Amino acid sequence: MAALPIRDRAGNALADLRFITEEELARLVEQVPVPASLVVVSHADAVLMMFDSWRKQWELPGGTREPGETTRQAAVRELREETGIHVVDLTFAAVAEFDLTKPERRELLAVYRVHLQVVPRLTVNDEALDFRWWPPSEPVSEDMSPLDAEIARRVVHSSTT
Fold this sequence. Notes:
Nucleoside Triphosphate Pyrophosphohydrolase
């Protein structure tokens, strides 16, 4: 695993990934905005990455919370919208801390995980142009978000230790 912080080509940084409980996340959300959720979907020894149509890179499924939505509800909805996977029993994994550039801000994202026994049928759509199963033991390609890859590596590693 890489030492944090790590940066992507736009200058955004993954500053920290904290493995806390969901109760701690709920208290954190009361103090600091947590505007989005990510989901680490694993099967066998690989993690699901989607090719984002807007950012033109491989990344984890996830996205912005809608008004009144919890981080968990956002994770479930975004996973369904971006991949076609209908899973409600996600496990809270961690909170990721980012230093973002456009606009410049510090942001926290809730990270959930789910391990699938069977490869799901995935749905290409306006947001996700393609999917791949990436083994976290492999190098990060130029067209992959190094921030999301590092989150995936750390979440997968934490669930095996």
